[in-house]
Amino acid sequence: MKRRPLITAGLLAAATPWARAQTPAPAEAAPAYSPADLQHAARLRDAGLADGQAWRLVQQLCNEVGPRPAGSPGDAKAVAWAQQALRGLQLQNVRAEPVPLRVWVRGPASATLVAPVAEPLVMVALGNSVATPETGIEAEVAWYPDFAALVADTSDRARGRIVFIDQKTERSRDGRGYGAAVVARSRGAVEAAKRGALALGIRSIGTDRERIAHTGAMRYEIGLPQIPAFAVSVPDAERLAALQAGGATLRLRVQLQSRSGVEAVSHNVIAEVPGAELPEEIVLLGAHLDSWDLGVGALDDGAGVAIVSAAAGVLQRLAQQTGRRPRRTVRVVLFANEENGFDGALAYGDRYKQQVHQLVSESDFGAGAVYALRSRVQPQALPLFGALAEVLAPLGVAWPEAGRNEGSPGPDAALLMRRHRWPAVQLAQDGTNYFDVHHTVHDTLERIVPSELAQNVACWAATAWLASQSPLRWTPPAA
């Protein structure tokens, strides 16, 4: 009688693992935000939409500082302005971290059509271009309809000539037209040099029809000659194309006076809303402080500087009003020298590579309204993005590619995402008209619509808050 309970207990003990194995485990609950966190996100959204701080900031940056090529006096003035502006928003741990540079300095430049008729062209030197001899370069033109045609050319047609690439830029909302065309600017001189060309000219990488030229960075390749490179306006490029199509032999004279490798120092400017529970984990909101020298850098990237700074300011102001601080630290990073080398992003990554980054993101696509949310996180975190999308929906923001999980967070942030495998978020802006003025004299304040700027602030404030409050530590998707 006494043994039966023992036998029964033993059988039950032996059977328990089998029974557990046969019983389906309860499904793990999807991660979710608390109602209070979602309510606060909506409050931040609405506060950002009503906030005029971004418009005031970009006005100050453009009117009081102006153009700010990396390493220039304008850049130094921008660094000082940014620290003052971020302190004015009551952000904490404001600092400027030095970034050594070797910069390119623009000099006088001109291009003239010599034959079949004589006329000046509207042009601009490309960033990093070497100078021509003091007397310039005059030569016949080897004309190509696009970059692919140059790459495919195995003849000697380019040798001893000025290569001209007539690469067109298609207008698109998401910038893919620019992405397809910009290789003509970035790698055109490399391919032309391989074929013995004396210089490179390109159709401006832009979507406008105005007689203005677009600058931008190009690069060389070790072991190949470094040849001068320039861009002409779209109407000038079409003039050359029409003459070429008519059978004319084109001849150009080009003079560029620029300097490369000038030693300088810039700074990444950083400020924070410290986290209340996980202050060592970072939600990074980025933009770049430098600009090209032709306009005042209102869209590229004064708007981005103003957007992420104002969004952090909204978080800080509501934290002071409500006592609700983010769990993780929200860090604004205004990067140095995005335009011509990504030195600021590289320096930031080297300095903070051991720190946990919950998110890297960047506003660097002008001031058009945000229309889409795109993620780049582990699949387990995607339900949280569904909740974020619901918060952003009243602003006209969709989450159209939830399953793709292939967001691109902006140039500096994308570099950090790839090098350090940090998770990322993209708030995709409407860039339909962005490349009309990109890298030109027309990158000025009147191109910004203040209400669209405020919509961006609302999106960034809500996104930063929910990234900081996530019950999961975000990681990148599997490679």
Automatic annotation (TrEMBL):
One of its GO terms (biological process) is proteolysis. Residues 268-462 form the Peptidase M28 domain. Residues 1-21 form the signal peptide. Its main location: endoplasmic reticulum. Keywords: Carboxypeptidase, Endoplasmic reticulum, Glycoprotein, Golgi apparatus, Hydrolase, Lysosome, Metal-binding, Metalloprotease, Protease, Secreted, Signal, Zinc, Zymogen. It holds the Pfam family Peptidase_M28. One of its GO terms (molecular function) is metal ion binding. It is found in: Endoplasmic reticulum; Golgi apparatus; Lysosome; Secreted. It comes from the Bacteria. InterPro entries: CPQ (IPR039866), Peptidase_M28 (IPR007484). GO terms for cellular component: extracellular region; lysosome. Homodimer. The monomeric form is inactive while the homodimer is active. This is Carboxypeptidase Q.
